[in-house]
Known about the structure:
This protein is mainly β. The protein has no helices and four strands. Helix content is 0%, strand content 20%. The chain is flat, with a radius of gyration of 15 Å. Residues 15-19 have low confidence and may be disordered. Residues 1-43 are annotated as: Disordered. This is Molecular chaperone DnaJ.
Amino acid sequence: MPNTSNDRTADQPGNAQSTGAPMSPGDEAPDGTPGTGHDVCPACGGSGKVGGATCSECNGTGEVNVGIGGA
Ligand SMILES: [Zn+2]
């Protein structure tokens, strides 16, 4: 029986992210930082893809965490 270690599904694109503060290159702050929130990634417009490839700014999530001063 060759199948022994495949019980985890990859729910994140790219490398596995440990718990804590996963950040994409386009993020201004770690997720959960007060005064910040998710916004549509300006690089891919929320599609998560640029030119057919995974957006490098949001890691394909289509969102980035940016400061939301509200001012
Ligand atoms: Zn993006």
